[in-house]
Specification:
alpha/beta, Urease, subunit C, domain 1, TIM Barrel, four-stranded mixed beta sheet, elongated, binds zinc ion
């Protein structure tokens, strides 16, 4: 049994909506699992070594549930345009740069380091459409001690010519990527159709089948902006809702 005892000002959320602060308290973990937080050290642990963080805060790590790794180089920039113009003007050209593996390595190493240094240990992340850069991202996250999900983005229509796959390429690259993901222990693959305007019906259907077959979760974007919603309506006049794709519900009269 490995017992860890941390001492400091402990912030803990024992249940939803509850936040406790234990000043100069003790956090005790056995084999990496937290057993409890105590104001006074229980007698049975009194002979064990203590990691004393004195007046510092000890708190849970952060989980980032939506992060686009290839947009890291443009962090905080280009906030002057609405979604669809923003994608075409800033985002797609930036993401296209990740066909260069050396560039991907440099950026993703820095991103992984910055995440872990700022306390983010769990992620749910979009990569770009590039299979190799996605694997580099997963490698850097795993090496940095981060766990979570990463998706190779799928997009076979309506994009920048530098950042588009054919339907066949998108499916084949996804399957190849999934095969290569088996070497990771803490970073898992997630199927990631960018959003409806970027993915043909044929691609969507195939990604659904892949997710089913490999029991994979899916992430995407939905109804983020009124122009996007209107565009999806134009592209899919037979659907009542953006999320109804594939179900082919007839429009209400
Ligand atoms: Zn997003």
């Amino acid at each position: 049994m490995i017992t860890t005892i941390l001492k400091g000002n402990i912030v803990s959320a024992a249940s939803f909506g509850k936040l406790d602060i234990t000043e100069n308290g003790y956090l005790i973990a056995e084999n990496g699992i937290i057993k409890g937080i105590f104001q006074n050290l229980p007698e049975k642990y009194s002979s064990l070594p203590i990691e004393d963080y004195s007046n510092n805060l000890i708190l849970q790590s952060f989980s980032d549930l939506h992060l686009h790794a290839p947009q890291y180089p443009m962090l905080g920039m280009g906030m002057d345009l609405p979604l669809l113009d923003w994608l075409n003007t800033y985002t797609f050209p930036t993401e296209a740069m990740f066909n260069d593996n050396n560039y991907a390595r440099k950026v993703y190493k820095k991103l992984a380091k910055e995440l872990i240094e700022n306390g983010t240990t769990r992620v749910c992340m979009f990569s770009s459409l590039h299979r190799e850069a996605t694997l580099i991202l997963m490698e850097e996250l795993e090496n940095a001690g981060i766990t979570g999900y990463v998706g190779k983005v799928n997009m076979d229509r309506n994009s920048n010519p530098l950042l588009q796959e054919t339907t066949k390429e998108s499916i084949e690259e996804t399957l190849k990527w999934l095969d290569e993901c088996k070497r990771f222990q803490y970073i898992k693959p997630m199927i990631t159709p960018r959003f409806t305007p970027s993915c043909s019906d044929e691609l969507m259907e195939n990604l659904g089948k892949i997710a089913d077959k490999y029991h994979l979760p899916i992430q995407s974007h939905l109804s983020e902006n009124t122009n996007e919603i209107a565009w999806v309506q134009e592209l899919h006049t037979d659907c009542t809702h953006l999320w109804a794709l594939g179900q082919r519900q007839p429009l209400q009269p």
